[in-house]
Design goal:
alpha/beta, about 325 residues
C-alpha cells in the first residue's frame, strides 16, 4: 500500500526544504552537523514524553575503561525487583542519543510497567566497529552483575532497539545464547533492524529514496562505522550473516520483529525472521502497512506509532511475567 498520508506530507515538507536549499540530506552533513539535525528532527516527530515514576541517570563501565551514559526508566517503584528491557537507540552508529529516544523509552516503560535501561554506546566515526557491539555486550554483562542493586531482575530481561539498535540487540542475543557466562534474555525486540549491511534487496531499491531513510544515508552510516569492507560481513555488524548453530538457536531468546512496509530495511528484517525460524527459534514478525523507517518515534504524526508501542508493551509483559 502507499505511504501513510501523514508521513507522506512530512516527507514532502522535507523534500521542499531540500529543493529550497534550507535543508541537506544527512549524508551531505558532517557527523557533528548530522547529530544536531537528528536531535532537532526527533523533537519534531515526538515532542512529548510520558510521565514515569522513576528516571535515573547511570554510568556503565566498558571494557577499555570508558564510561557509558545510561538512563533508567521505571513506571512502578513497588514492582521490585523489576523486569527490564535493555534498549539501544538507532542512528546508524553515527547519530542518536539517550535524548533522541527518550520519548520512546518513556512510552514503553509507561505502557508495559517494565523498566527500560537505555544505553548511550559510543558513536562512529570517533569509535568504529566493533566498539558499539562491545559497548552493548558490556552493558548486558554489567546489567547481569549490577542490576539487583538497582532493583532490576536479571532473570526477567529483554534486549531491544530500533534500526542499528535492533542490530546490536540481535547481535548480543546471539552472543548470549552461545556464552553461558552472560545473562540470557527472555525476549529480543528488534524494531526495523539492520541485519545485513551488504544487502542489495528489492526494498532497498524500492524505498531507498524519498522514504525518510535513504540508501545514500545508509552507505554514509556504514562507511563511518566500518573500518573496512570486511567488517560489514561480520555477524556482529550484520546478524543475518552470523553463523547460527543448532545449539545457539536452541538457546536463543524469542524475537519480536517490528517492521515498516515502506522501509528500505524491511526485506532484510523479514529475511532475519526467516533465518531464526528456520533454525527453530521462536519468531513473531509484524509488518506495519504504510509505515516508513522510524515510525515508532512519530507519535506526533501517526497513530500507528502508539499502536506499535502497545504491541511491544504487551509482548514484553507476556515474556517477562513470572519469577526470574
Amino acid at each position: 500500500m502507499p505511504v501513510n498520508p501523514d508521513i507522506a506530507a512530512f516527507l514532502a515538507l522535507a523534500a521542499g526544504g531540500r529543493e529550497g536549499g534550507r535543508m541537506k540530506p544527512m549524508h551531505a552533513l558532517s557527523p557533528a552537523e548530522a547529530r544536531l539535525a537528528f536531535e532537532h528532527t526527533s523533537r519534531m516527530m515526538d515532542p512529548g514524553g510520558e510521565p514515569v515514576e522513576r528516571v535515573e541517570e547511570l554510568s556503565i563501565p566498558a571494557r577499555d575503561g570508558a564510561v557509558l551514559p545510561a538512563r533508567l526508566y521505571s513506571a512502578d517503584r513497588t514492582a521490585m525487583p523489576a523486569p527490564v528491557l535493555l534498549f539501544f537507540h538507532g542512528g546508524g552508529y553515527v547519530v542518536g542519543s539517550l535524548e533522541s529516544h527518550d520519548g520512546l523509552c518513556r512510552a514503553i516503560a509507561s505502557k508495559s510497567g517494565i523498566a527500560v535501561l537505555s544505553v548511550g554506546y559510543r558513536l562512529a566515526p570517533e569509535y568504529r566497529f566493533p566498539t558499539a557491539f562491545d559497548d552493548a555486550l558490556d552493558a548486558l554483562d554489567w546489567l547481569g552483575r549490577a542490576g539487583a542493586a538497582l532493583g532490576l531482575d536479571g532473570g526477567r530481561l529483554a534486549v531491544g532497539g530500533d534500526s542499528v539498535g535492533g542490530s546490536l540487540a540481535a547481535a548480543i542475543s546471539l552472543r548470549a545464547a552461545a556464552d553461558p557466562g552472560l545473562p540470557r534474555p527472555r525476549l529480543q525486540v528488534l524494531i526495523y533492524p539492520v541485519t545485513d549491511a551488504t544487502a542489495e534487496t528489492d526494498s532497498l531499491c524500492r524505498y531507498g529514496e524519498g522514504h525518510l531513510l535513504e540508501r545514500a544515508t545508509l552507505e554514509w552510516f556504514y562507511r563511518h562505522y566500518a573500518g573496512d569492507e570486511a567488517d560489514r560481513r561480520d555477524g556482529r555488524f550484520s546478524p543475518l550473516l552470523a553463523e547460527l548453530s543448532p545449539g545457539v538457536a536452541a538457546s536463543l531468546a524469542p524475537a519480536l520483529l517490528v517492521l515498516a512496509e515502506c522501509d528500505p530495511l524491511v526485506d532484510e528484517g523479514i529475511a532475519y525472521g526467516h533465518k531464526l525460524a528456520a533454525a527453530g527459534a521462536s519468531v513473531d514478525v509484524r509488518i506495519h502497512a504504510g509505515m516508513t523507517h522510524d515510525f515508532l518515534r512519530m507519535g506526533a504524526l501517526v497513530d500507528e506509532a502508539e499502536e506499535a508501542q502497545d504491541l511491544i508493551a504487551d509482548v514484553l509483559c507476556r515474556h517477562l511475567a513470572g519469577a526470574g
